């Protein structure tokens, strides 16, 4: 008869026990290996961030790439709203019966801007060369009852510009111009249609201007919007993002240089890394400042953050505004003295952009002289600056640099010198005459583009997080199960050994 102790330790029983234990160990090892594999995969996703790598790759400009096509011809609704200043007491002011001009804002005249980058060439240094194109199409439906043939009393830009330039010339040049002014009885304020004022019309004065002053202008009509949107000879280069993905779509050079020719010193002249509004810097950090450049502004403006907890149409947005005292000429920041043209500093709130407007005596300000020195409004009634209505803002997605909404507002003014030597213009000596103000605005992304970027910027990152955390959680669960199984197996083995030991002890006794 087999002793119990011998039965417990027989080869068959031992073999069966070892096989069972081996199976348990094998299964536990597989669980642990799978758990570690899932955790490693989750950790690699966290460290390598494949979503970020793919997104950076998609930001690079390449022929036929999605972001490049969006930049080349932005499929957005971009508009310019134009507000004219009608002078309601023109006769009394010119006759000397009124000391100040009474102005009345009329608008907006709304135009759609079909922005595009044409004649594109990819360069070997990580840039792309292009010529900008910005045709405007009048939007009757968005302009209310206003029409381009509406007639108002507005500044005669041609006369005042020619008078301003000719006043500095010798008498033998001023004399024929003054003679023509008197003979034609042209006045500094005249009735014009809205379109004539914005786009100009041929006059004898402009013909005389580019005949007697050939180095001044080379066109036969003077219109502020026409000149502002004259991009015929412009060429630019932008970064493709090959070296640094975050700067794709930002300026490298304008007219062949990273510096604007009209300003001295990089503080005022630099446009490198500025945006033309199509795309801003990607992966914006909390303290980052941005640059925004438009030819009509004649300079790059610094944008500062004004809040990060915004959402536009479901996408996260950081709000940017122009820096405080952005139109300072050195009164607050000595570095801004480089905006003083030929050493002549205009009052605070006016930036001399004569060099960008073909020698016309033009200065930019915020609408209705917002934030400007009060003395610039001393000869004008009807200007009502409103910090809410007249400030600019940019809502930008901080990951992609995509503008979700923007509103850029500036006013065009004529800043006139001593015109006492010019016929009919004496009354306008030393005046700042508001001409119009405009708002370049994008109310939001079109539905097709919005849905695409909701997928890229919300759904994909969410999916990335779900996959990462699921891998880590599932791996952790498998490891926990494996550890629990090992613990139970060890506990069972310990119990079995203890029982067999007791049985052996009892049999020996």
TrEMBL record:
Domain of life the protein comes from: Eukaryota
Ranges that cross the membrane: 29-48
Species assigned in the record: Anopheles merus
Single GO term (MF): scavenger receptor activity
Purpose of the protein: Plays an olfactory role that is not restricted to pheromone sensitivity.
Gene Ontology cellular-component terms listed: cytoplasm; plasma membrane
Keywords: Cell membrane, Glycoprotein, Membrane, Transmembrane, Transmembrane helix
Protein name stated in the entry: Scavenger receptor class B
Main location: membrane
